[in-house]
């Protein structure tokens, strides 16, 4: 069984680095999830302890996930999430993205097959990006999500014609390290007039894409 990778913990928060190929919360079938691991962890400290989901990452995405240790904080964080956080990701794209920086603005909907797609009838999604490096006919990008819509990063780059590696669902033809090439590398949080910066180390399989060719 995987061990919980804790980034930060205090009396109110538990922040962890989620591995890929693990659900944040159960889909009704899977019992081993990031939430179940966090729950087991806090209950080992004291049986009455509780843990609450604040936000999620896709199953195949790794990186920073924040849990609240009480329901009041969970509700506050969820109600104010877009205003009190700044979330950054690192992604490896297929091909060489021509623009070194840009903003992807789309309206997204989800169909009955859980596929997200651009539609004028959808909800607004905004994604900023900046190219870090080109290597192996791939582009390494730093991403900041301004909104928090399901699959917005994956859909956005797929629609540009540069899907994230390993993302077969949204058009990727390559899977060099048998996982989605998307990692939530940092989350800034402004809580109770205090600034927090939580960072999840870059996965080892991403590191060759940073070095010079």
Q: What features would you highlight for this structure?
A:
globular, 11-stranded mixed beta sheet
Structure commentary:
- With 213 residues, this protein is α+β, with helices and mostly antiparallel strands.
- Helix content is 16%, strand content 37%.
- It has a single domain (6-209), classed as Pseudouridine synthase (2-Layer Sandwich), CATH 3.30.2350.10.
- It contains three helices and eleven strands, in the order E-E-H-E-E-H-E-E-E-E-E-H-E-E.
- Strands 1, 2, 3, 4, 5, 6, 7, 8, 9, 10 and 11 form an eleven-stranded mixed β-sheet that branches.
- Strand 10 and strand 11 (194-199) form a beta hairpin.
- The protein is globular.
- The relative contact order is 0.17.
Please sum up the structure shown.
This protein is an alpha+beta fold. 16% of the residues lie in helices and 37% in strands.
Secondary-structure map:
Blueprint: E1 6-9, E2 13-18, H1 34-45, E3 52-53, E4 62-68, H2 71-84, E5 85-94, E6 101-110, E7 116-118, E8 123-135, E9 138-145, H3 152-160, E10 182-191, E11 194-199
Parallel strand pairs: 4-10
Antiparallel strand pairs: 1-2, 2-4, 3-4, 5-9, 5-10, 6-7, 6-8, 8-9, 10-11
> Which architecture name does CATH use?
2-Layer Sandwich
CATH topology: Pseudouridine synthase
Q: State the total count of DSSP E strands.
A: 11
Task: Label the structural class.
Answer: alpha+beta
Fraction of residues in helix:
10-25%
Q: What is the CATH C level class, in words?
A: Alpha Beta
Give the domain tally.
1
Could you give the distance between the termini?
37 Å
Strand content bin? 35-45%
Rg calc: 17 Å
Order of helices and strands: EEHEEHEEEEEHEE
What is the 3D shape? globular
Major sheet characteristics: 11 strands, mixed
Could you state the CATH homologous superfamily?
Pseudouridine synthase
Average the pLDDT over all residues and give the rounded result. Answer: 93
Q: Please work out how many helical segments DSSP would assign.
A: 3
Provide the low-confidence segments as ranges: none
Oligomer: single chain
């Amino acid at each position: 069984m995987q061990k919980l990778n804790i980034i930060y913990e205090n009396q109110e928060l538990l922040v962890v680095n989620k591995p890929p190929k693990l659900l944040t919360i159960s889909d009704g079938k899977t019992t081993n999830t990031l939430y179940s691991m966090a729950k087991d962890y806090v209950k080992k400290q004291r049986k009455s302890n509780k843990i609450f989901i604040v936000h999620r990452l896709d199953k195949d995405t790794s990186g920073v996930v924040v849990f609240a240790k009480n329901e009041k904080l969970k509700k506050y964080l969820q109600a104010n999430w877009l205003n009190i956080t700044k979330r950054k990701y690192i992604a490896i794209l297929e091909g060489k993205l021509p623009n070194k920086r840009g903003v992807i603005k789309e309206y997204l909907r989800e169909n009955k097959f859980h596929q997200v797609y651009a539609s004028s009838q959808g909800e607004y999604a905004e994604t900023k990006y900046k190219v870090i490096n080109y290597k192996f006919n791939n582009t390494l990008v730093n991403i900041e999500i301004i909104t928090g819509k399901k699959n917005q990063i994956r859909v956005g780059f797929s629609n540009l014609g540069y899907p994230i590696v390993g993302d077969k669902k949204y058009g990727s033809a390559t899977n060099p390290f048998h996982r989605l090439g998307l990692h939530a590398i940092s989350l800034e949080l402004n809580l109770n007039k205090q600034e927090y910066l939580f960072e999840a180390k870059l996965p080892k399989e991403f590191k060759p894409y940073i070095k010079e060719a």
